[in-house]
Amino acid sequence: MNRSVSRTAALAALLLAAAAMLTLPALTAAASDANDAGVIVQAERRFAAQVRAMGVRAGFLRWLAPTGVVFRPGPVIGRTSYEKQPPGWNGLLAWHPVHAAISADGTLGWSTGPWTWKRDSTQKKVDAFGEYMSVWRKQADGSFRAVLDCGIGHADPAREETEVHYSAPVPGARLGSRPLAARQSLYQADATFARIAATEGVSGAIARYATDDIVVLREGAQRFSGRAVAQDSVRARERIAKMTSNAQYIADSGDLGYTYGSYVTGTLAAPDSAYYVHVWHRGAAATWRLAFQVVMPVPKPAKK
After folding, report:
1. Which string of DSSP letters, residue by residue, matches the chain?
2. Tens-digit pLDDT profile for residues 204-262
3. Rg (Cα) of the chain, in Å, rounded?
């Protein structure tokens, strides 16, 4: 169960009497320096706090960008999805960031970390665990909103993380002066990663393209951090994958972007379909490096 799926199950509004939280404004870049990823961490924490106070449905409608994407299991417009969910359950969805980054111009960032879900907010037992990833974009009014949200589920990690780690793309002169060329270069990087993943294997593509501190998420497993760990862990789980990019976005500074699309493993006779999200950072040699990857499987139909 990923964080998006658990929210769908929640259908929830929770503690609607928290009027102070209802009027809490979205975080703006003025809360920190433009290139300080702490602004993303603060936005994520306030997002989580409002979901605890307002409920899943109301909280996500408050913080998702108008065209923000969630995965159900494929990409859909998040606000449309949550608007269809009636309030009613008293569940509790909680999460916090442990890794974050932001673009050099302070307009695009992302964070990832653990989430938990309780069917009843008053119970001690946690019903589900997992890892989320959100991409944040600065809006025209200066506020930050989530433009992409996804995640995976796994067993009880039996550990609690509180420290936040930061990574950053390498800024460079005039990276954003040719936005179309920068977007094309990001598309080409994603396409080349896909070609290598389909011929030499996903772990081989990670070995070539990953940052040293890459974060990789797979359903049923705890977070893989670091290139060597990610490469070995992915090699043990899957060999080759066919990937098709459906969307790309890049910060105006040209040093951070994300892509997502379809992801198919297995044989032609028995393929396993999934979706992927990649976050790319500009490297020291002005080449794109993969800083984050999540693969979210499409649930198989129940056997009759």
Report:
1. --HHHHHHHH-----TT-HHHHTPPPPBGGGS-TT-THHHHHHHHHHHHHHHHH-HHHHHHHHEEEEEEEESSSEEEHHHHHHTSPP----EEEE--SEEEE-TTSSEEEEEEEEEEESSTT-SS--EEEEEEEEEEE-TTSBEEEEEEEEEEES---------EE--PPP-TTTTSSHHHHHHHHHHHHHHHHHHHHHT-HHHHHHHHEEEEEEEEETTSPPEESHHHHHHHHHHH-S--EEEEEEEEE-TTSSEEEEEEEEEEE-SSSEEEEEEEEEEEE-TTS-EEEEEEEEEEPPPPPP-
2. 999 999 999 999 999 999 999 999 999 999 999 999 999 999 999 999 899 999 999 99
3. 19
Closest-CA residue to 3 (of 121, 134, 175): 134
Instruction: Tell me how far CA of residue 168 lies from CA of 34, 36, 178, 289, in angstroms.
Output: 13, 10, 21, 11
Condensed to tens digits (0 to 9), the pLDDT of residues 193-220 reads 999 999 999 999 999 999 999 999 999 9
Which residues on adjacent β-strands are paired with residue 293?
Answer: 216, 278
Share of the chain above pLDDT 70, in %: 84
Average pLDDT over residues 29-46: 75
Determine the straight-line distance between the first and last CA of the chain, rounded to whole angstroms. 22
Q: How far apart are CA 12 and CA 34, in angstroms?
A: 34
Residues 6+ apart with CB under 8 A from 34: 105, 106
Q: What is the mean pLDDT of the chain?
A: 86
Structure tokens at 12: 């929830």
Per-residue confidence (pLDDT) for residue 104, from 0 to 100: 92
